[in-house]
């Protein structure tokens, strides 16, 4: 009897494994990844089945659908033909085919490189809200900064302002239910993003929309560490405040996420009833062309990665990159190597202090490869942490926002970046880059090669798992 049960269970495992392997094959994944999965199923069937069901499938694609995205897509059709940039038409074409957001030109922009200035501007704008406040954050802390924002949101909700707040539960795992209960007590619509059957998929966005006119986008979450009060010390980051039509793209992204996560039962949804209040006419600002690029595990294409590779391929003089983590795809790594070997001035600014142990050491192996091709790598000051996420090309175009230069941001996280087509604005960003480099250490070509055997072994072990970090 026991023998028969074991035989039946083995047969069931084989059948389930076979179905999973077929699914992997039909998904048209990377060949190396596909072979690793097949080997995993051959050696450890039970563990492989559990791992595949939790981490290997795109659950998000199957479980979240809504009609709001279709409604907004139809509304945005009018914007596509209005604003074109001839110089970067090649970039707009690929983004338009892989990404639902049009270019907007009526914008004003301000850069922030530290938490104190960003939070000051954010709090001032929140206090002036007249109709609605939309926030979407990966990390929210129950600390001084987090509670200051909470108190403002509660005050505005009491004034009758509609407040909606999307919070990633993995990133904000330490927040505590008390914080969100207090928000909900005053009528604030808190929407936690968490899909436990796919914990590797995270909502990494950091955006705020106020009255559909003012928006914030960048690398800073809500917490004291972004003011330099955490264990990493002084925190250098990059965030923007935008006033203008580009905010429509942030609004569209937020509303799509809200209805896919929340699956609101209102019929019709609030956006259809009050469209003009969420996408109002914006007074004339200045001519600043901006384009939003969004990607995630539910995207048909990794649009942010495609846009960055396209920018790199267009470079004629220089490519400047700031990133806290550097786990590039093979195609992006090759693009940077080719650019450097062709004589393009390629520079990467990377933290000198370790934030996430495995990512830090895995990143060093990719930086070492690029240095052998002539890429200049700078390590930021060791008493501080660099969290800025940006790339600029030839002083004419830049991309910045939520996404890191790593596989997780390109394929596993829900991310949003802004591409800016303006010489003056890009020059301002490049001045920030040069200032940070002046406080950093330019590495010798053999810096990583001179590391000890133990460090090299550690780096390469970390690199083996870098695609999931």
From TrEMBL:
InterPro entries: Cardiolipin_synthase, PLD-like_dom, PLipase_D/transphosphatidylase. It is an enzyme of class 2 (transferase). SUPFAM superfamilies: Phospholipase D/nuclease. It comes from the Bacteria. It is found in: Cell membrane. Keywords: Cell membrane, Membrane, Repeat, Transferase, Transmembrane, Transmembrane helix. The keyword Glycosyltransferase does not apply. Its EC number is 2.7.8.-. Pfam families: PLDc_2. One of its GO terms (cellular component) is plasma membrane. The chain crosses the membrane at residues 7-25, 37-55. GO terms for biological process: cardiolipin biosynthetic process. Residues 199-226, 382-409 form the PLD phosphodiesterase domain. GO terms for molecular function: cardiolipin synthase activity. Its main location: membrane. This is Cardiolipin synthase. The gene is clsA_1.
């Amino acid at each position: 009897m026991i023998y028969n049960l074991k035989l039946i269970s083995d047969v069931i495992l084989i059948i389930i494994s076979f179905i999973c392997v077929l699914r992997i094959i039909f998904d048209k994944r990377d060949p190396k990844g596909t072979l690793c999965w097949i080997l995993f199923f051959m050696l450890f069937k039970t563990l492989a089945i559990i791992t595949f069901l939790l981490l290997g499938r795109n659950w998000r694609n199957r479980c979240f659908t809504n009609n709001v995205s279709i409604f907004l897509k139809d509304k945005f059709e009018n914007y596509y033909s209005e604003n074109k940039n001839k110089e970067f038409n090649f970039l707009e074409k690929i983004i338009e085919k892989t990404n639902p957001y049009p270019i907007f030109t009526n914008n004003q922009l301000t850069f922030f490189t530290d938490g104190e200035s960003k939070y000051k501007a954010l709090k001032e704008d929140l206090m002036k809200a007249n109709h609605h406040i939309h926030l979407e954050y990966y990390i929210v802390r129950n600390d001084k900064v987090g509670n200051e924002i909470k108190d403002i949101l509660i005050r505005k909700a009491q004034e009758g302002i509609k407040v909606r707040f999307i919070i990633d539960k993995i990133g904000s795992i330490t927040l505590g239910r008390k914080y969100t209960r207090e928000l909900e007590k005053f009528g604030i619509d808190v929407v936690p993003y968490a899909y436990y059957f796919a914990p590797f998929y995270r909502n990494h966005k950091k955006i705020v929309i106020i009255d559909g006119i003012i928006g914030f986008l960048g690398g800073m979450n809500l917490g004291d560490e972004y003011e330099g009060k955490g264990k990493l010390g002084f925190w250098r980051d990059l965030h923007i405040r935008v006033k203008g039509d580009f905010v429509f793209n942030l609004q569209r992204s937020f509303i799509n996420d809200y209805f896919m996560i929340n699956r609101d039962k209102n019929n019709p949804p609030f956006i259809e009833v009050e469209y003009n209040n969420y996408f109002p006419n914006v007074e004339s600002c200045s001519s600043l062309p901006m384009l939003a690029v969004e990607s995630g595990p539910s995207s048909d294409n990794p649009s942010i990665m495609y846009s960055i590779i396209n920018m790199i391929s267009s470079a004629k003089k220089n490519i400047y990159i700031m990133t806290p983590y550097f786990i590039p795809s093979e195609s992006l790594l090759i693009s940077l190597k080719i650019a450097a070997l062709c004589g393009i001035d390629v520079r990467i600014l990377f933290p000198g202090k370790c934030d996430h142990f495995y990512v830090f050491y895995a990143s060093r192996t990719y930086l070492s490869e690029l240095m052998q091709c002539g890429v200049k790598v700078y390590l930021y000051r060791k008493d501080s942490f660099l969290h800025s996420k940006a790339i600029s090309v030839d002083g004419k175009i830049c991309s910045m926002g939520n996404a890191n230069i790593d596989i997780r941001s390109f394929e596993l996280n829900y991310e949003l970046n802004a591409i800016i087509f303006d010489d003056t604005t890009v020059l301002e960003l490049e001045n920030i880059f040069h200032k940070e480099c002046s406080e950093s250490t330019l590495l010798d070509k053999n810096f990583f090669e001179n590391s000890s055997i133990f460090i090299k072994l550690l780096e390469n072990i970390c690199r083996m798992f870098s695609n999931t970090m």
